[in-house]
Design goal:
- Helix content is about 80%, strand content about 0%.
- The chain has about 425 residues and is mostly helical.
- The termini are far apart.
Length: about 425
Amino acid sequence: MTFLQIASLLIVLAGLFGAINYLFLKLPSAIGILVVSLFASVAILLLDLVAPGLGVADQVRTQVTSIDFSDALLEGMLGLLLFAGALHVKISDLRQQWRLVFLMATMGVALSTAVVGVGFSWITGMPLLIALVFGALITPTDPVAVLGVLREANLQKSLETKIAGESLFNDGVGYVVFLVLIGLAFPHHGGHGGGHEESAAMGAVMLFLQEAVGGAVLGVVLGWLTFRIMRRIDDYSLEVLLTLGLAFGGYELAVALHFSAPIMAVCAGLLIGDVGAKHGMSEETRNYVDAFWKLIDEILNAVLFLMIGFEVFAVAFTMDAVVAGTLAIALALVARLTAVAVPVLLLKPFRSFSRGVIPIMTWGGLKGGISVALALSLPDSEWKPLILTATYIVVIFSIIVQGLTVAPMAKRIGREPELM
């Protein structure tokens, strides 16, 4: 199938499954599309068991595996999704919560990676360095899923900013940590070969600094340049086009320069969404930019969750892998609790926190498409099928179970008591 045919099919199915969810299941849009696509996938697999001669499952599997989910997300959709998410987080709100957001996006990512890596190595017998790669790819929370849940939960502003800001930044930092660990675990693949552990470690540190710092600087510079141009223009269609060019062009430039494209997208989106919206746009332009990116977010979100549902055809569900994946769910939750609780407890003597911040941020740390994409991008090895299956099981549990229950939980324990 050509690119246009694949894109058309995904849009048609996303619309159809979204309509089925709206009319019958009435779940939140993205989660409902994921559930319907999973049902459709399972139905095809059952049909193949009943009538194997039709070969339907093999045909669908061929089409699904022909779509490079990893490239489609990491090299295309992710930049637009992160930019759209960052547009709606205000720097002024983020500045008040920056200490916790910073600690969770750095110390929290490191702690979570270590907890999952050590635990998964113990569960499966996997070499520790490869298990740490699994820890790095399962650590990032999905800002698309998280921000969608926040719209339903009606949280306090401070708690909402903590969750949204942390999910945007730990996505980028987690991706950089993944690249560093890939270079150490698979030296021929990652480019840190040579055999000397000291030089490999130094190369990993330099890669982290280049990716993280370079991505942030590039995002701020490009966002500022775009803002300066928008200040001189009063044409909403052209200004919307400029933001689209910033998201697309900036992301591809970051990839070409070997900077962190996700961090670039977040920093550029934050600057345009706050400084650009206040000082570079008319009210009409702000309304159009906001509506345009909200629509882009919803459409890509629907397509992404549709693709996650169909990735079941790319996963090998052996009994050992299913058991390991089930245990990995508990492991990921413990790691998330550690990543949230340690920074909060460190800062608690110096400032107060919203009621229920630890349980809500732990349960609300949803995994999503980026984890599946990173697992699919792993170099071929004997451990890749196990990692992919475990990742898929954790992501499906996180999106469906946590995604459907975090809003009611947040409403129950995350709101201050009403004043009489």
